[in-house]
Design brief:
114 residues, mainly beta, four-stranded antiparallel sheet
């Protein structure tokens, strides 16, 4: 089984930056892909970014050129660097890991407000 622990959310002003972290533990050898989704109030959960074991990345159009996903394999951790944040980025961000099925983290709140 894989466990995910997220950190790094918070309150930031528009135009600001935050970095989210997602640390994986357990049967991490089974993981081939990790990423982040987000869910805003009243909206469906949507993919933000993902990264494979080989380093291939995928981004939602709405965050391209603003967000960067990366991974530190030695620490079994995936990061989401978020720059130029907008009020519409406000959401609960969830880390996920794909291995034998998909595992989700508990979520971390990101609020962009002046």
């Amino acid at each position: 089984q894989v466990q995910l622990v997220e950190s790094g959310g918070g309150l930031v002003q528009p135009g600001g930056s935050l970095r989210l972290s997602c640390a994986a533990s357990g049967v991490i050898s089974s993981i081939y892909n990790m990423g982040w989704h987000r869910q805003a109030p009243g909206k469906q959960r949507e993919l933000v970014a993902s990264i494979t074991n080989g380093g291939s990345t995928n981004y939602a159009d709405s965050v391209k050129d603003r967000f960067t996903i990366s991974r530190d394999n030695a620490k079994n951790t995936v990061y989401l660097q978020m720059n130029s944040l907008k009020t519409e980025d406000t959401a609960v961000f969830y880390c996920h890991a794909d291995g034998v099925g998909r595992v989700w983290g508990q979520g971390t709140q990101v609020t962009v407000s002046s």
